[in-house]
Amino acid sequence: MTDIICRNSILFDGSGKSPVIADVAVTNGKITAIGTHLDAIHGAIEIECQGLWLMPGLLDIHTHLDLEIELAPELPEVVRHGTTTVVISNCSIGVTYGHQRSNGEDPIVDCFARVENMPKSVLSRVADACTWSDSQGYLHHLQSLPLGPNVVPLIPHSMLRIAVMGLTASISREPTKQELARMVQLLEAGMAQGYAGFSTDALPFHFLANAPNKKKKIPTQYAGFLELSRLTNIVRRYNRVWQATPPKDNIFAAVRSFMLTSGRLYRHPLKTTVLAAIDLQTNRSAIYLCLLLSSILNSRILKGHLRFQALSSSFRIWSDGAINPIADEVPEFRVLNELELDDRQGRARILNTPAWVKAFRKMWLKGKKGWSLARILQRLRLEDVVLTRQLKDMIVAECPLASWVGETLEAPYRRLLKYQSSSAHNASPHDEEVIFFSSLPNPIKDDAAFFLHLLRAWDTDLRWETTFANRNTKTLRKLLFHNQTLPGFNDSSAHLANIGFYDGNLRALKIAQQEGLQQVSRMIHRLTELPAKFFGVNAGVVRLGAQADLCIIDPAALKQWDPEKTYHFMHRPQFGCRQIVNRPDAVVRNVIIGGKMAWDNGTYSDEFGKTAYGRVLRAKDHALEQNMTHL
User: Which UniProt keywords apply (predicted)?
Assistant: First the structure.
């Protein structure tokens, strides 16, 4: 292992204190000296950091990298963005208990394919390789891989239920007393082995992907309050983290479940982190309800310990026809999502079914005409759905008519109305748009009919994007710095063709940069030491004796970067599909993990992906190291 000295850096140690100009020396994977004009070390790599920010490696607190770890354990997209520690097995799904195949059931494929929009062929290949069968075996497996960043695993509730009950039983009945006791036993084992916490999910649009379960939600959503209470009590006793998502359409159920964080009611607070505090375009009240609930639960009266996760960017998604990460929220789109991605004929049959068309039109036009409660709620941004139904919010990314690319769907819709209302068409009859317009029914009466005909004509060849949350930069800034939130939620490696949030931490730093170095220091703390302490792992700081997980950032390049203009699609052979990525140029200069250079001025090291850089971070290791320090 080659020693490293970072010279003349603007050093942020992760604590939130003001930065200092300092050298940092790394020997045998640890930080061994911090100061000015440190002595040279024979054979050490010297990195000149004048004018550059040196900080702890960043944490990504909400990912679905479980599958990517099996395909590319170095996690290159994560590392190039300055992230050195990731939390996996969120939202109740993972590979903790192996492939879990039984009686023709294929839980990994069933749970991941629709929830995280991943190709079934890739999921099946991952499941083939999951030969372990318990949580200890999974830890051994992770430790055997050439990891890029450090990995912090959680125990996923859906897979825990399947391990005890089997998939079919876990989505069709309550557990017996013996089965619940077995779940408690397995979760207790995971906590004793050092898992950082336990993840559940209650979002109403997370469905299974395989027949005959396509109308069923993932197993965690069939757990009653008693089961949730019993299991989280184990997590509370170990002072670990419960990661949850709320039942967004049932405020009473959400309040009841999140009351589990209360130290007043349950004798000791339960560390709880909830997905997510975001500024929805369709419902502006959602974030205020989240923050209000959090402040009440964390009050002196209830003594809770709950933090809503915050996304550091605009929530921009790409859709393939009617298929996108939130389409299952809407029943009319859900039946299309139940089909395989390549089943164009199946979707065509649905799109031409009169009963479905009637339901679609009712859904799409709700609140758009006349005066009604739905109209008022839409105008006030208080709708009960997340998905946009406004053509002006839908920007064409790809379609058979190249001239539409970059336009909102509202623009060609207006041209179509003008075309159909005119008896003499000015455009050339050879114009591609005119040819397409002439193929549509005349008249097209509303935007529902227009969008429906686009789906019929082009299906997934129509690729469009929309930003359905976090459009307001001032509101986003408040969320990222709010004392009731934890930034760092990026959903990395989920929805590969639909979202690209690996860059979220860098966006947070860019927002902070606009307000000066002290705010940058605050944000670095919120992306490093703060979440590391919350999850109980030994990471996120630059101090003597700490593992050398470091990130060097060029603030000038960060300032010049426009995050909305650096998206692009790339083919990842490991996934067998296109992936949307957002890669800022030259912002992250160097990434050091475990004292080894992983990323250096735009290139990975020769050994990256061949040998381990990161490690599995266990909560119990952190506790032991803390006790040793006090002794």
Answer: Hydrolase
Residue 477: both structure tokens together: 């800034």
Is the confidence at residue 78, as pLDDT, over 60? Answer: yes
Tell me what pLDDT residue 628 has. 39
Largest CA distance in the chain: 89
**Non-local CB neighbours of 603 within 8 Å, separated by 6+ positions:** none
Bridge partners (DSSP) of residue 244 are: 274
Q: Are 315 and 468 in contact (CB under 8 A)?
A: yes
Pairing of strands 305-311, 485-492: parallel
Residue 172: what pLDDT? 97
Give, as one character, the DSSP assignment of residue 425: -
The DSSP secondary-structure symbol of 47 reads E
Residue type, 136: Q
Stretch 358-375: mean pLDDT, rounded?
90
HSE-up of residue 160 (Cα within 13 Å, Cβ side): 34
Strand 62-63 relative to strand 485-492, pairing:
parallel
pLDDT surpasses 80 at 627: no
- The per-residue b/e assignment along 82-102, b for 16 or more CB within 10 angstroms, e otherwise, is bbbbbbbbbbbbbbbbbbbee
Kindly compute the dihedral angle of the four CA atoms of residues 47, 53, 56, 60, in this order, to the nearest 10 degrees.
Answer: -120
Residue 506 in contact with residue 329, Cβ under 8 Å?
A: no
* 66 membership: H or E segment, kind and range: helix 66-71
Q: Is the model's pLDDT at 292 over the cut of 60?
A: yes
Q: How far apart are CA 92 and CA 95, in angstroms?
A: 10
Whether 424 has a pLDDT exceeding 60, the answer reads no
H-assigned helices in 330-472: 331-337, 344-351, 354-365, 373-379, 410-421, 432-438, 447-458
Residue span(s) of the chain under CATH 3.20.20.140 come to 58-314+470-604
CB atoms within 10 A of CB 571: 9
Residue 274: closest CA among 259, 252, 284, 264: 259
**Predicted structure pTM score:** 0.94
Label each residue of 76-134 as H, E or C.
Answer: HHHHCCCEEEEEECCCCCCCCCCCCCECCECHHHHHHCCCCCCCHHHHHHHHHHCCCCC
- Contacting residues for 204 by C-beta, under 8 A, at least 6 apart: 217, 247, 248, 249, 329
Which tens digits make up the pLDDT trace of 578-623? 888 999 999 999 999 999 999 999 999 999 999 999 999 999 766 6
DSSP classification of residue 171: T
pLDDT digit string (tens) for 23-60? 999 999 999 999 998 988 888 999 999 999 999 999 99
3-state secondary structure of 166: coil
Query: Tell me: the pLDDT tens digits for 240-262?
Result: 999 999 887 788 899 999 999 99
- CB atoms under 10 Å from CB of 243, counted, come to 28
Mean pLDDT of the chain: 93
Within 13 Å of residue 303, how many CA atoms lie on the same side as its CB? Answer: 7
Convert the pLDDT of each residue in 13-25 to its tens digit.
Answer: 999 999 999 999 9
Which CATH superfamily includes the segment(s) 58-314+470-604? Metal-dependent hydrolases (3.20.20.140)
So what's the pLDDT on residue 488?
83
Q: Strands 315-320 and 395-398: what pairing? A: unpaired
> If residue 266 lies in a helix (H) or strand (E), which one and from where to where?
helix 263-266
In the chain, how many H helices and how many E strands?
Answer: 25, 24
